[in-house]
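Regression test case RT-17, inverse folding.

Input:
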């Protein structure tokens, strides 16, 4: 626990949500530290608790409200004095959040992120709940000078804010506004800053990374950006996340193929493959096009690993359409896959659609799909036994067991390499041999 400094409040910070939200948390942490506050990750030991929330789907909201409730309970017990809720949930719900949960002292929208230190100061001295909200879309943020939550050898690099797509299930455009590219100069400066602080891996994120530069009148914005990022000497791995499948063009594939730094790992959320469901989702893909994309990527990017995201139980999804999806997953052999049940979110088109699928059916489909994927992932892991992999070490415990990743494992969401005899330090690349598997993870030996 951090020790209390004279005249300085201790801030308990709870960082929830996706990598985009983690960047906001890291920026807020830097602002809070800069203002001279002490920081703890334990709300129970804080004077003020700040909870940076996600408001994307029901489970994320539930997790956020649970964290708020815990902080409010600490306040009622007298350990915590103020509770501040920031991020997507207040941006989405606005003042309604005060009605939904008693005991919140301030709510802070996305556009007020960089004012968090002043807001904390004001909240400490105020007896009235206050809302600090600005209308979305807000200006593009400068994400430099963050206090990283991730280990210093890897970081997220956000290249844009908001989304221009109209997926009928999604609340993101309503929460985070329309797509705004971060200026290239700012991204390159941020990347250089992260690398000079020790990052050897940058994970490029956005709501849709393929859309980068459209609003800046760039034709192949992501390709151009990647080619410039590659010039940063000490940067070793560049990983492209959240690629919108319909926008992956030849130029981008060529750029990745020619690059020595962009890893052959692509995160391509396809959501579904049945043409009627895709249409109802307002996604421009078709099953044929998705199939051709996968057939095209694998030979052009040797050793390419593919990750995707799927939604099951979208309104009107029939058994036949679900089975078609299941067959596609068996055919596509994704290396990693995240599956979500469809959640009815107010304000989205899909919430108004008839033929909502019962929760029990959604749950069954989710389990069936994940079981199918598990077999694929386990078989792929088994096939790797005996092969050699370069691993980036993430951590090493006192017994010399390391945790690391080869290029096909993204941080935080994918499986790991468990290094049984690690003599290297976090941030170092080592040669390893795969000797076994443990659930989704690979057991490797340093060689
Ligand atoms: S691409 Fe679709 S799912 Fe992704 S953030 Fe944009 S609207 Fe939402």
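Golden output:
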């Amino acid at each position: 626990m951090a020790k209390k400094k004279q005249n300085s409040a201790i801030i308990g910070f709870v960082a929830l949500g996706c990598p985009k939200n983690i960047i906001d948390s890291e920026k807020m942490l830097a602002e809070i530290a800069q203002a001279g506050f002490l920081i703890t990750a334990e709300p129970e030991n804080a004077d003020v608790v700040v909870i940076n929330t996600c408001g994307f789907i029901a489970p994320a909201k539930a997790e956020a409200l649970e964290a708020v409730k815990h902080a409010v309970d600490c306040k009622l017990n007298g350990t915590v004095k103020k509770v501040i809720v920031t991020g997507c949930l207040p941006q989405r719900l606005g003042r309604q959040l005060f009605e939904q949960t008693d005991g919140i002292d301030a709510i802070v929208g996305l556009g007020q992120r960089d004012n968090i230190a002043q807001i904390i100061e004001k909240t400490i001295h105020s007896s009235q709940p206050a809302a600090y909200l600005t209308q979305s879309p807000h200006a593009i943020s400068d994400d430099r000078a963050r206090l990283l939550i991730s280990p210093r050898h890897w970081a997220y690099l956000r290249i844009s804010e908001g989304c221009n797509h109209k997926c009928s299930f999604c609340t993101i455009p309503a929460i985070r506004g329309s797509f705004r590219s971060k200026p290239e100069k700012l991204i390159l400066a941020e990347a250089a800053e992260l690398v000079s602080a020790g990052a050897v891996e940058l994970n490029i994120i956005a709501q849709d990374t393929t859309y980068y530069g459209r609003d800046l009148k760039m034709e192949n914005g992501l390709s151009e950006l990647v080619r410039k990022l590659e010039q940063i000497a000490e940067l070793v791995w560049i990983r492209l996340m959240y690629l919108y499948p319909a926008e992956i063009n030849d130029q981008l594939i060529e750029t990745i193929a020619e690059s020595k730094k962009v890893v052959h790992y692509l995160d391509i959320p396809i959501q579904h493959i049945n043409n009627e469901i895709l249409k109802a989702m307002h996604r421009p893909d078709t099953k044929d096009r998705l199939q051709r994309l996968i057939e095209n990527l694998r030979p052009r990017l040797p050793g390419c690993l593919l990750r995707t995201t799927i939604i099951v139980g979208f309104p009107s999804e029939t058994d036949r359409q679900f089975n078609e999806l299941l067959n596609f997953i068996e055919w596509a052999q994704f290396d990693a896959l995240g599956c979500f049940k469809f959640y009815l979110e107010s304000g989205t088109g899909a919430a108004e659609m008839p033929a909502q699928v019962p929760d029990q059916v959604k749950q069954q489909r989710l389990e069936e799909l994940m079981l199918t994927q598990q077999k694929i992932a386990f078989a792929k892991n088994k096939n790797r036994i005996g092969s050699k992999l370069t691993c980036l070490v993430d951590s090493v415990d006192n017994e010399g067991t390391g945790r690391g990743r080869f290029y096909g494992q993204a941080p935080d969401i994918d499986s790991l390499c468990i290094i049984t005899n690690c003599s290297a330090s976090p941030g170092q690349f080592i040669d390893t041999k795969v000797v076994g598997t443990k659930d989704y993870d690979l057991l490797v030996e340093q060689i």
